[in-house]
Amino acid sequence: MSQGKRRSRGGIPSSADDVAGNGLLNRRALLGGGLAFASAASAATVTGAAAEPLKDAPWSLETGAVTPVLQTPSRFEKNVVRTLSNPNNEMRTSHARTPHHLLDGTVTPNSLHFTINHSGIPDIDPAQHKLVIHGMVKQPLVFTLDTLSRYPLVTRMAFLECGGNSGAMFSNEPVQATAQGLHGLVSNAEWTGVPLSILLDEAGVDRSAKWLIAEGADSLALHRSVPVKKAYEDALVAIYQNGERLMPGNGYPMRLLLPGYQGNMNVKFLRRIKVVNEPAMSYYEARTYSQILPGGKAYRFHFLQEVKSFITNPSFGQALKGPGYYGISGIAYSGNGRIAKVMVSADGGTSWAEAALQEPVLPKAFTRFRMPWRWDGQPVVLQSRASDDAGNTQPTRAEFVAVRGQTKKPVASANAFPNQHYNGPTSWGVASDGSIKHVYA
Ligand SMILES: Nc1nc2c(c(=O)[nH]1)N[C@H]1C(S)=C(S)[C@@H](COP(=O)(O)O)O[C@H]1N2
Ligand SMILES: [Mo]
User: Fold this and answer.
1) pLDDT at residue 222 in the model
2) Does the pLDDT at position 244 exceed 80?
3) If you write DSSP's letter for every residue of 263-281 in order, what string do you get?
4) Closest by alpha carbon to 347, among 67, 2, 81?
5) How many CA atoms lie within 13 A of 370 on its CB side?
């Protein structure tokens, strides 16, 4: 770990040791705390030893509201919503993005899980819906939600990311947008469902079969080819999301879950799995999700969502209120497995310090990282860089652009999808007035 150039701290208390440039502190400070660190870190307003007694606010003087059957967040959290690309439900794709800059922890609440629906959200009656497994099998099978629910269920955390997430990061100039705008097409949930392997074994898959074609019950019957190998590794037919039935937008009443694989393959409203020996070359695999390389060639079947991270706090859309202690925090994940390490830089990548990883660190799921930081009020550039336990590390932006390219002209907005599978860094430039911009470093 290199020591970055230190600057004078301008009278800010510094009892914990800096471990990298521009005030990054040792992550161990987060574990023990300790008096010295607590006083350096305090963000509370100091009122002196004899703090005024609290006065009763109006809400402390009367009985509260009726308890509703279904809870919704406080009315003061009205801005914590998804952003919509197609609010009037025109005949095109609808994206709803997760507000990462307003959330913490690792679980995306169901109401805020991102959704992409290419032909709207079907109104499926779970009593009528059927899932068929057929093709190269000994006995074709039909399942209802009821019969599926009687199989052995398993529960796991998994992130789900659209291959087009972070598309605006291909812009040759940084698009000024929040972490929601730039990276809102990834979310993380606890999914419960039936291992697809159990259903395939019951149907008796022909040993020579290499592919499955999974198809949805929405009007475009979205379908994708999935290697049989992946189906046996860790695929689920998911029927619960964070403990409750799937949200309509997330595939109610059942969906394919392929942990770590491109979002589009996670077919929602799942109604058919056909076992075959050749891929379907469907619209989404042959056209949309074949990433074009600078030389004009394309990746074919690039399914994996690779190791990635971004800082959510502080980030664009927020402003720092003067020098002092801040907790830097963000999200890291890898379609390959567990996050092994996240490094954070406050000087645009010159020096790095290792962030604390919030336990439990689960495979193919969000890991929350945290880094204590003392800001001296000077301009800084914050960024994170994650590594997974398969030995992969996020490329630098220069490394990424060398292989995958970038646009010749700046893209107009965070809704742009010039290309797929960006997994380079995101850099936030903090100005001395505390304002935050998206920068390339
Ligand atoms: N049947 C069906 N499945 C679908 C889609 C769809 O429009 N219809 N959208 C796909 C896309 S592009 C993505 S990125 C993921 C998003 O899953 P989510 O909406 O649950 O977040 O679902 C995929 N599965
Ligand atoms: Mo997607």
Assistant:
1) 96
2) yes
3) GGGS-SSEEEEEEESS---
4) 2
5) 15
By C-alpha distance, which of 310, 259, 261, 255 is closest to 289?
Answer: 261
Bridge-based pairing of strands 380-388 and 367-375 is: unpaired
Task: Report in angstroms the alpha-carbon separations of 349 from 39, 138, 159.
Answer: 29, 56, 27
Fold of 117-288: Sulfite Oxidase; Chain A, domain 2 (3.90.420)
Name the percent of the chain lying above pLDDT 90: 85
Is there an atom of ligand 1 within 6 Å of 116 CB? yes
Contact 423, 159 (CB under 8 A): no
Question: Would you say residue 257 has pLDDT above 70?
Answer: yes
Nearest C-alpha to atom 12 of ligand 1 is from which residue?
264
Is 263's C-beta closer than 6 angstroms to any atom of ligand 1? Answer: yes
Residue in 415, 417, 410, 441 with CA at minimum distance from that of residue 427: 441
CA-nearest residue for atom 18, ligand 1, is 115
Amino acid at 392: N
Q: How far does CA 290 lie from the centroid of its chain?
A: 21
Which tokens belong to 103?
A: 């959330």
Query: CA 368, CA 327: separation in Å to the nearest integer?
Result: 12
Indicate the Cα dihedral angle 303, 83, 333, 244, nearest 10°: -90
Query: pLDDT tens-digit profile of 11-59?
Result: 344 445 789 999 999 988 786 655 455 555 666 665 665 667 888 999 9
Q: How far is the CA of 163 from the centre of ligand 2 (A)?
A: 5
5 has pLDDT over 50: no
The percent of the chain in helix, strand and coil, each rounded to the nearest 5, is 15, 30, 50
Q: How many Cβ atoms are within 10 Å of 144's Cβ, its own excluded? A: 15
Q: Which atom of ligand 1 is nearest to the CA of 162?
A: 14
| Dist CA 175 CA 414 (whole Å) | 7
Please give the pLDDT value at position 111: 98
Question: Which stretch of DSSP H or E encloses residue 186?
Answer: strand 186-195
The pLDDT tens digits of the residues spanning 93-143 come to: 999 999 999 999 999 999 999 999 999 999 999 999 999 999 999 999 999
Which residue's CA is the nearest one to ligand 1's atom 21? 115
* Segments making up each domain of the chain, as ranges: 117-288
The CA 131 to ligand 1 mean position distance, Å, reads 17
Cα distances (Å, whole numbers) of residue 199 to 157, 158, 184, 245, 275:
21, 21, 33, 20, 12
